[in-house]
Amino acid sequence: MKNTPQNYDWLSITLHWLSAVVVVGLFAIGLWMVDLNYYSQWYKPVPHWHKSVGLCLALATLFRLLWKHLKGHPPIEGARWEVMSAKLAHGVIYLMLFGLFFSGYLISTADGRAIEVFNWFSVPALGEIFPNQADIAGEIHYYLAFGLIGLAALHALAALKHHFINKDNTLKKMLGVK
Ligand code: HEM
């Protein structure tokens, strides 16, 4: 049953920090790989890793939301406006993540080819569902990626403000320390 714990559990903490590292890594690698030329040794493997890691992150994020729903989560601390804006920011971060997963899927599968996830399993393609799919999804993916990194930076600053200015338990809860 859902309850209201006082701290994040180790699985939520691990998923949070792993997701944070993977999001920043995918962003950096994404920016780098679009400028690779055909003759580079990285031209083929890097997009393959980007897609594979992105799809694993999509599965981990789905699991994270399910886990959050089952376990409950500690109350957000601070003034009413801080609680409201934190909830809004967390919701928008999740929405942007799913927007990125979905637009990434639409870019990769527009040519009808399935996505091979580390050669472990493949995600079937739906092909081109609408005209110029790869270009349109590519634009959305690009702007969402910058939006997510900007919002995540704001979110990190808010966590540091809670820690150093409000001196509350917000960051400690996500670090698993008391
Ligand atoms: C790309 C990077 C990041 C992403 C995508 C991200 C995403 C999230 C999300 C979605 C939540 C809500 C958790 C829930 O569903 O209950 C959260 C919570 C939290 N994050 Fe991050 N985060 C990132 C980086 C950071 C960084 C760098 C810090 C610290 C400097 C941080 C500190 C926290 C804290 C303290 C919470 C708990 C907030 C609370 O319960 O009041 N995050 N993060």
Q: Please report the number of helical segments.
A: 5
Rg from alpha-carbon coordinates? 18 Å
Cofactors and ligands present?
A: protoporphyrin IX containing FE
Shape: elongated
Return the CATH class. Answer: Mainly Alpha
Helix content: 55-70%
Give the oligomeric state. Answer: single chain
**Separation of the first and last Cα atoms:** 25 Å
Number of strands: 2
Q: What is the level-2 CATH architecture name?
A: Up-down Bundle
- Strand percentage: under 5%
**What low-confidence regions span 5 or more consecutive residues with pLDDT below 50?**
none
Sum up the structure in keywords.
178 residues, binds protoporphyrin IX containing FE, Fumarate Reductase Cytochrome B subunit, mainly alpha, 2 strands
Concise overview:
By secondary structure, the protein is mainly alpha-helical. It contains five helices and two strands, in the order αααββαα.
Write the SSE topology.
Blueprint: H1 10-33, H2 45-71, H3 80-109, E1 115-117, E2 121-123, H4 133-166, H5 170-175
Antiparallel strand pairs: 1-2
Helix pairs in contact: 1-2, 2-3, 3-4
Describe this entry's structure for a reader:
The chain is elongated, with a radius of gyration of 18 Å. Strands 1-2 form a two-stranded antiparallel ribbon. It starts with 9 loop residues before the first helix and ends with a helix. The chain has a single domain, classed as Fumarate Reductase Cytochrome B subunit, CATH 1.20.950. Helices cover 68% and strands 3% of the residues. Helix 1 packs antiparallel against helix 2, helix 2 packs antiparallel against helix 3 and helix 3 runs antiparallel to helix 4. It has 178 residues and is mostly helical. The protein binds protoporphyrin IX containing FE. The site of protoporphyrin IX containing FE has 22 residues, from helix 1, helix 3, helix 4 and helix 5.
